[in-house]
Amino acid sequence: MDLTADMTNQPFPTQLFGDDAIDTAEEKAKPSSRQTVGDPFVENPRMICRDVYVYYAEKCAINNVSIDVGRNEVLAMIGPSGCGKSTFLRCLNRMNDTVGTCRVEGDIRLDDMNIYDPSVDVVPLRASVGMVFQKPNPFPKSIFDNVAYGPKIHGLVSNKTELAEIVETSLTKAGLWNEVKDRLHEPGTGLSGGQQQRLCIARAIAVSPEVILMDEPCSALDPIATAKVEELIAELREQFSIVIVTHAMQQAARVSQRTAYFHLGDLIEVGPTDRIFTNPRHQLTEDYITGRFG
Amino acid sequence: MQNTPQQSPITLRINAGLKKRYNTEKRFKRMGISAIVIAMTFLVFLFGSIISNGYTAFQQTYIQLDVSFDQTFFTGENLAAANFPGLVKKTLYSMFPDVTSRNDKKLLTQLVSSNAAFRLMGMVTKDPKLIGTTQKIWVLADDDVDMLIKGHYDRNVAESNRRINDKQLAWIDALAANGKITKKFNTQFFTSGDSREPEQAGIWGATRGSIYTLFIALALSFPIGVAAAIYLEEFAPNNGWTDLIEININNLAAVPSIIFGLLGLAIFINFWGMPRSTPLVGGLVLTLVTLPTIIIAGRAALKSVPPSIREAALGIGASKIQMVTHHVLPLAMPGMLTGTIIGMARALGETAPLLMIGMIAFIVDIPGSVTDPATVLPVQIFLWADSPERAFTEKTSAAIIMLLAFLMLMNGLAVYFRNKFERKW
Ligand SMILES: Nc1ncnc2c1ncn2[C@@H]1O[C@H](COP(=O)(O)OP(=O)(O)O)[C@@H](O)[C@H]1O
Ligand SMILES: [Mg+2]
């Protein structure tokens, strides 16, 4: 992590300190307040999101969200169902482009490149910002071909040996190599759910992305498979920035460094994970993590 | 000691309704089974009647002639120009020396097919060394003789109601007694085109016509249909125009095919000046007939590919066309093939639109290319079914058998390809 970055470069919009915002940690922001509290911004971020609005046709699904994704951190996004976590996550690699009615406004930058700029091509963008989905979705092809697909279409390798190397390192990083090395040419869909999800992670990291987005990656897995994937996420943090949507608060607490709480399209609170879970500054966050609703 | 388990009121309520529920299930099963039995009975009846009517057409009656290729017949330079019908007649007269009157001689020559002279010509032109020798040669019998030998004519009806009179009957019996008349496998049927003479008529011309026509239809409608389905399903913007196109395609699938025939006549033949009665135009018309089916089936197949596969491909940075060609299309292919086969099976049986573009013409020659005039199997069936001669009845059934065999072959191929492409996900 680059801690020497010049702090004065970091934008810190004044709108964060609106009328409803609070100064002390003891007082909670009122439930009616929709201003983000906590520290949504970090030094030397990987991705910067400012004033992001997302609409499905006329319906506003994300309302003025500003947040940073740091380097080598796991950012967890929590919140009740339908609050827009997936919608926001899918803005980060423009997967929302596939939804005809979806419109994104605001500024989202990956390493200073505005990803919604008309000149930006989504193909390389999605290679830099990979995605792992809720339901494991390996291609109905062999394990090898699943992992090899990304490097192949992006032309990252020049020969078969290199390709085999990438496949091996990706599967190793995903903690799957030892389990599948003898059956690389069997279909990926024949693996167990947890293995399939790790295969999907291997597929995503095979193209060396900078950021990996995960949308409830463990919600279809049993506890043992979940534990393995969580372990893997912790290891992957050393190389990638990870944004994970989860509805399991324990999971957020276990794997993430920062946590963002969404509520009905608003980003309510962002902060270091241990602080969010021990000392939330917004009434809505507290209500959610103490299980009063959600 | 009796041990009745405690039953809660809920369990009792459920148990009370159980019998009714099971009865409904049983009734439904019985209805299903009887529907299948009825369908199978009709199918067996259909096949039974077609096969029992048609199988005799696979044999044909032949008469053995002792032909002496007399030098006097082959005086000219051109062997083919020799008087072969005269040679056949002379042979027959020599086999029945007591036939003398002009009228009887005519009746006698009617026993063999006009094809006999062509057969002799073929033999001599191929092997001129035959001249001067005497050969025993099997030639086709006339269709009336064939019908008599196959037992389709009743000998006991009054002579005036018979197509074979008493004299001819006697000659045939004499031939049969000498072993000079027999039934052989009917290769002619599988190798020749249509003919006015039932004994010479064959199915190969129509089969070739069907093959060419279907080939054109498949070669055009499959790629166009698949491309249209992919465009509409994956690329087209969701707006009024796409809705309009979709509605129109669905409507086209329901348009009676004869309308497409009229369209083909107006556009392909009258406007573009393509040759009439040809598999080329027939194939184009059948392309129009089958396209809606293929597009609709193709779109359904594309829709059934799980969205998660698309997301997986896009999520790793595949472009839209890569997503389609690498992932969606292979998964949709079995469904698309099924749709195509349904379309092709329909095209194979299609008659009405082909009548409009002249494929009903009487065509003897076997088509050699898609621009030669031709007819197709269902039209051939229609033509034969319409002919008065008794011998065409069995040909009609035989042609239907051929059509069904063709259909089964196509379906078999389709199942083979579908299984080949089919994968699980
Ligand atoms: N494709 C879509 N079209 C219209 N509305 C959508 C679509 N996807 C999500 N939404 C709406 O946007 C809101 C946020 O959804 P989502 O991001 O999936 O929530 P979460 O992942 O937090 O459960 C919900 O109200 C949902 O109904
Ligand atoms: Mg979601």
TrEMBL record, chain A:
Pfam families (alphabetical): ABC_tran
NCBIfam families (UniProt xref): 3a0107s01c2
SUPFAM superfamilies linked to this entry: P-loop containing nucleoside triphosphate hydrolases
Any one Gene Ontology cellular component term annotated for this protein: membrane
UniProt protein name: Phosphate ABC transporter ATP-binding protein, PhoT family
GO molecular function: ATP binding; ATP hydrolysis activity; phosphate transmembrane transporter activity
Domain ABC transporter: 47-289
GO terms (BP aspect): phosphate ion transmembrane transport
Automatic annotation (TrEMBL), chain B:
Record-linked InterPro entries: DUF3333, MetI-like, MetI-like_sf, Phosphate_PstA
Coiled coil location: none
Family under the similarity heading: Belongs to the binding-protein-dependent transport system permease family. CysTW subfamily.
GO terms for biological process, alphabetical: phosphate ion transmembrane transport
Protein known as: Phosphate transport system permease protein PstA
Every ABC transmembrane type-1 domain range: 207-414
Keyword field: Cell membrane, Membrane, Transmembrane, Transmembrane helix, Transport
Membrane topology recorded in Swiss-Prot or TrEMBL: Multi-pass membrane protein
Compartments, record wording: Cell membrane
GO MF, one annotated term: phosphate transmembrane transporter activity
UniProt-listed PROSITE patterns: ABC_TM1
Species of origin: Desulfopila aestuarii DSM 18488
Pfam family name, one: BPD_transp_1
